[in-house]
């Protein structure tokens, strides 16, 4: 039999765990079927899709035993001539991200439910397409496959922002696309380097995660490879000097685009750091740790100060996002159990808060037509439910105890503090700054003299989104152990794996 | 060998059939000839016999695989250009026959075993294209393109002949295998060989359109009828690169240390020149010309890095590049105004969703966005080069980053709404044959990449 055709055949057979592949098939099917769904049923259809994929992800999470090392979804017993293996699977960390992706997608669809956008065919397709690509990123256990999915995510979010965004979006979007594309190219370079071998290091057998891990890097090539990955992730997160695309893109995107960007795409980069950047080139971690933490610290403080000075409420939260994720990035490169748990919890929390805050911004904008804080005010009187929910999300963003934000930031700041107390002190200021800009935005928009606009209170779907967010935030705040127990065995295994491969190198 | 004869005959027949003034007869002859040529070429490979009727040509695996995509691209181009060919009933047969003759030349350039045959192939490839470039007779730019292409092309041919002569003087042979053994068995060569090699290099760089020998290409691409531009970008490049690989990658592989540094510098220059000039183009075919210069720069990487996979990677690269170009040229034929401004693509995705979709696929594939075919072509080239030439790959990657800007500009234009006050452009109807071409290109661009790396 001809080898190539046989491989295609085998690829289908090798999905031995078909139950698991449904994670990817469901969004794919929903995106395709959306082509023929009538326009007036589109919003219900989208919602059903979101619910189904969320339920599937939750079922996976329920049947997942945290101590299981790794659940393989696609595992062909061959590699292509050029090393692409199509390996897919998840451990605790990936599965957490998968659940997060599906839940957030559902919330995004739900919060758009009563808008005109929800009946748009292309919008629905693009959201499912995005979900598919994100799941691909989180499930890939093959470097090239990871890269391919990583790049695909760019297209739907770009199209959503281009088609449905605010006026004057074109330059911002071109900047965004080029910035992230160039960053990804650096990652491709690093992947190729580790696969093909540079600086006298041996060639990897294939792009499979385990094979790439097995490559022994010299400390010089490790730095280059680490740097390539870092560039891609630093643009996407964004870390301090690479953040300039972010505020404009967030502001010019429609609500769904902003939510996808901040709640999910950014997590891709953080996940990439955990899964790919550090495990593949652990030799470089020691020398790169400090620079990354310093950049993150600068970003935390700098973005917080900018957030305080903004008048546009969406821009405030865009800068707030930079400020929060800097801390997470710092926590990840510390590479120890406590900081990593903190980082993972904070990743969840940041997604929840991002969805909540940008939904609040959109509610304000669509009802008053304004985003400027000095022209807003007095909304709390007209819309008490909204004011309450917005307040809860705001408090989670400030990291008040009993919200998930507190646990995450506490663990992260403690980690950085024990690494270097000066940096810890500086980075800890995020708590103060966070309170300042969030409360300022809240106070200026919600309180004060009532302005002349009619502000209806929350619609049912908006209320539902806020309610779900609130429940998750509080549950995680009271019982973070739920998440920590879920991911801890996987994280420990990852640490051991990295440690052992480092030992051989020395 | 059979394939050559079949293609030539089908060209000849379509030339005479044109007297019947029935364009469909010409078209079907051409299609039959191309299919038969492709099949005979494939069987020559598949059954493993080499029909060495004349010792100047040898259809080995290299020639067969390069030749097959040459035939495929010509077929697609004839299909997509058919609607413009048949507008002038007197010349339908001429156009198609010239393309087929030129393809015969391209096959010679892929299968030659001595320099004579190579030179013949090059001329057979080029002369019909000189004529085709000027086939829009009422248009001054087309005439200018033909003249320019002819003059510079002849000059390059002269240089090539000169180089061949020097090499003959240095090695005492025209045959590639003899030259190769001579080069590899002797350590020191006369300066004649090096001089000849440089002349050959210049001529080749001219033919593929690499900087600093690229100045003809934007004008010629721009002025020629669109379909000829597509042919030049897809098939002529294929032939030229095939011969380039045969002569530099294989025959003169022993002198790699001598010519590789020069080619490295020129490859970098080519990438930057192509990319930076493309940033500010307003005409679509000019943009395509500059982008093709950049792609030549990437493709040169396969020659610079010598390995067993070089020939395959170059093949894969040209394969992916050809599909994108043919798709874009077909879209331009359907949509563009006579001025060929990029602006005429505005709102294409709304006016004509399928055409717009394919055009966007092709542009993104040129830019190297996965999982499209262009990404895999680029990936193969870069991955092969990275372990020996990391710097060059870094520069190529930087250039891919620059390149995304001008591709994205066109993509955004296609995605945008049309201005309300602008005159409404009618929805373009897509002729059936061009529709087929677009579908083939779309399928190849979306799924072909996976097959390339299997």
3D architecture notes:
With 506 residues, chain A is mainly alpha-helical. Chain A contains 21 helices and two strands. Chain A has a two-stranded antiparallel sheet. With 454 residues, chain B is mostly helical. Chain B has one domain (2-452). Chain B contains 18 helices and no strands. Chain B has helices at residues 2-17, 23-46, 61-85, 92-111, 115-133, 140-171, 176-185, 191-208, 216-223, 226-250, 256-278, 284-304, 310-335, 348-351, 353-367, 373-386, 390-415, 432-452. In chain B, helix 5 packs antiparallel against helix 10 (226-250). Chain B is globular. The chains are: A mainly alpha (506), B mainly alpha (454). Chain A binds chain B through residues 4, 7-8, 80-82, 84, 144, 147-148, 151-152, 154-155, 159, 162-163, 170, 173-174, 177-178, 181-182, 185-186, 188-189, 192-193, 195-198, 203, and chain B through 364, 369-371, 375, 379-380, 382-384, 386-387, 390, 393-394, 397, 400-401, 404-405, 408-409, 412, 415, 451, 453-454.
What is this structure's SSE topology?
The complex is a heterodimer of chains A (506) and B (454).
Chain A (H helix, E strand, L loop, with lengths): L2 H11 L4 H16 L8 H22 L7 E4 L13 E3 L1 H20 L9 H19 L3 H10 L1 H11 L5 H27 L12 H6 L4 H18 L8 H8 L2 H26 L4 H25 L3 H22 L2 H32 L10 H4 L1 H15 L5 H16 L1 H26 L13 H19 L2 H25 L1
Antiparallel strand pairs in A: 1-2
Helix pairs in contact in A: 2-3, 2-5, 3-4, 4-5, 4-12, 4-15, 5-6, 5-7, 5-12, 6-8, 7-8, 7-12, 8-10, 8-11, 10-12, 11-12, 11-14, 12-14, 12-15, 12-21, 13-14, 13-19, 14-15, 14-18, 14-19, 15-17, 15-18, 15-20, 15-21, 17-19, 17-20, 18-19, 18-20
Chain B lengths: L1 H16 L5 H24 L14 H25 L6 H20 L3 H19 L6 H32 L4 H10 L5 H18 L7 H8 L2 H25 L5 H23 L5 H21 L5 H26 L12 H4 L1 H15 L5 H14 L3 H26 L16 H21 L2
Helix pairs in contact in B: 1-2, 1-4, 2-3, 2-4, 3-4, 3-10, 3-13, 3-18, 4-5, 4-10, 5-6, 5-10, 6-8, 6-9, 8-10, 9-10, 9-12, 10-12, 10-13, 11-12, 11-17, 12-13, 12-16, 12-17, 13-15, 13-16, 13-18, 15-17, 15-18, 16-17, 16-18
């Amino acid at each position: 039999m001809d080898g190539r055709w046989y491989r295609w055949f085998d690829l289908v057979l090798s999905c031995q765990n078909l139950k698991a592949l449904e994670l990817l098939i469901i969004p794919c099917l929903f995106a395709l079927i959306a082509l023929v769904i009538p326009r007036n049923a589109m919003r219900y259809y989208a919602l059903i899709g979101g619910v189904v994929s969320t339920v599937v992800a939750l079922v996976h999470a329920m049947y997942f035993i945290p101590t299981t090392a790794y659940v393989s979804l696609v595992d062909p017993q061959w590699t292509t001539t050029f090393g692409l293996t199509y390996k897919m699977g998840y451990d605790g960390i990936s599965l957490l991200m998968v659940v997060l992706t599906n839940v957030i997608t559902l919330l995004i669809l739900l919060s758009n439910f009563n808008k005109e956008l929800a009946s748009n065919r292309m919008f629905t397709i693009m959201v499912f397409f995005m979900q598919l690509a994100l799941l691909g990123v989180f499930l890939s256990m093959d470097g090239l496959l990871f890269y391919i999915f990583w790049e695909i995510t760019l297209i739907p979010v770009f199209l959503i922002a281009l088609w449905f965004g605010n006026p004057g979006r074109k330059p911002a979007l071109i900047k965004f696309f080029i910035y992230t594309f160039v960053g990804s190219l650096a990652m491709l370079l690093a992947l190729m380097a580790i696969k093909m071998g540079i600086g006298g290091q041996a060639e990897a057998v294939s792009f499979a995660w385990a094979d790439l891990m097995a490559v022994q890097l010299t400390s010089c090539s490790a730095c280059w490879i680490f740097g390539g990955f870092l560039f891609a992730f630093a643009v996407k997160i964004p870390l301090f000097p690479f953040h300039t695309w972010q505020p404009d893109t967030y502001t010019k995107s429609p609500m769904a685009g902003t939510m996808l960007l901040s709640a999910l795409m950014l997590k891709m980069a953080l996940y990439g750091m955990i899964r790919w950047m550090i495990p593949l080139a652990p030799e470089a971690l020691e020398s790169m740790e400090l620079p990354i933490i310093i950049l993150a610290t600068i970003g935390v403080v700098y973005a917080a100060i900018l957030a305080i000075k903004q008048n546009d409420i969406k821009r405030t939260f865009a800068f707030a996002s930079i400020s929060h994720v800097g801390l997470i990035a710092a926590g990840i490169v510390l590479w120890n159990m406590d900081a990593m748990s903190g980082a993972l919890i904070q990743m969840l929390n940041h997604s929840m808060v991002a969805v909540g805050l940008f939904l609040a911004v959109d509610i304000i904008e669509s009802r008053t037509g304004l985003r400027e804080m000095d022209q807003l005010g007095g909304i709390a009187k007209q819309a008490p439910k909204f004011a309450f929910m917005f307040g809860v999300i705001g408090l989670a963003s400030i990291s008040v105890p009993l919200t998930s934000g507190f646990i995450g930031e506490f663990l992260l700041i403690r980690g950085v503090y024990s690494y270097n107390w000066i940096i810890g002190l500086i980075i800890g200021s995020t708590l103060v700054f966070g309170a300042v800009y969030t409360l300022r935005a809240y106070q200026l928009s919600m309180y004060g003299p009532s302005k002349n606009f009619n502000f209806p209170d929350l619609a049912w779907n908006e209320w539902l989104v806020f309610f779900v967010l609130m429940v998750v935030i509080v549950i995680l705040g009271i019982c973070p152990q739920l998440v920590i127990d879920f991911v801890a065995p996987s994280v420990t295994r990852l640490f051991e794996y990295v440690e052992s491969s480092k030992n051989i190198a020395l | 060998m059979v394939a050559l004869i079949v293609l030539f005959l089908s060209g000849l027949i379509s030339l005479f059939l044109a007297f019947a003034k029935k364009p469909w007869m010409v078209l079907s002859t051409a299609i039959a000839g191309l299919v038969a040529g492709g099949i005979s070429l494939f069987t020559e490979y598949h059954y493993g016999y080499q029909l060495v009727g004349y010792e100047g040509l040898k259809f080995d695996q290299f020639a067969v695989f390069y030749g097959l995509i040459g035939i495929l691209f010509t077929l697609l181009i004839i299909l997509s250009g058919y609607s413009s060919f048949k507008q002038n009933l007197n010349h339908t047969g001429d156009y198609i026959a010239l393309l087929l003759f030129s393809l015969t030349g391209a096959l010679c350039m892929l299968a030659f075993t001595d320099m004579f045959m190579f030179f013949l192939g090059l001329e057979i490839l080029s002369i019909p294209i000189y004529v085709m470039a000027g086939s829009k007779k009422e248009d001054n730019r087309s005439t200018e393109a033909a003249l320019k292409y002819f003059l510079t092309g002849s000059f390059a041919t002269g240089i090539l002949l000169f180089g061949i002569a020097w090499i003959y003087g240095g090695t005492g042979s025209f045959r590639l295998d003899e030259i190769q053994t001579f080069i590899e068995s002797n350590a020191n060569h006369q300066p004649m060989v090096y001089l000849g090699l440089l002349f050959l290099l210049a001529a080749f760089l001219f033919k593929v359109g690499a900087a600093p020998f690229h100045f003809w290409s934007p004008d010629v691409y721009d002025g020629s009828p669109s379909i000829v531009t597509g042919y030049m970008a897809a098939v002529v490049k294929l032939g030229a690169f095939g011969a380039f690989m045969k002569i530099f990658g294989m025959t003169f592989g022993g002198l790699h240390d001598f010519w590789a540094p020069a080619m490295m510098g020129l490859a970098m220059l080519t990438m930057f020149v192509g990319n930076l000039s493309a940033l500010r183009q307003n005409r679509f075919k000019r943009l395509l010309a500059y982008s093709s210069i950049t792609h030549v720069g990437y493709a040169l990487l396969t020659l610079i890095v010598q390995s067993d996979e070089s020939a395959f990677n170059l093949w894969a690269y040209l394969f992916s590049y050809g599909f994108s170009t043919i798709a874009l040229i077909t879209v331009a034929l359907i949509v563009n105004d006579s001025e060929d401004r990029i602006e005429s693509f505005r709102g294409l995705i709304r006016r004509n969703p399928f055409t717009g979709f394919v055009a966007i696929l092709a542009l993104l594939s040129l830019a190297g966005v996965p999982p499209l075919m262009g990404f895999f072509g680029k990936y193969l080239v870069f991955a092969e080069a990275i372990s020996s030439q990391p710097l060059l790959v870094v520069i190529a990657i930087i250039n891919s980053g620059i390149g995304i800007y001008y591709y994205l500009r066109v993509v955004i234009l296609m995605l945008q709404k049309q201005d309300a006050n602008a005159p409404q452009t009618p929805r373009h109807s897509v002729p059936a044959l061009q529709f087929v071409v677009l579908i083939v290109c779309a399928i190849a661009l979306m799924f072909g990449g996976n097959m390339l790396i299997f």
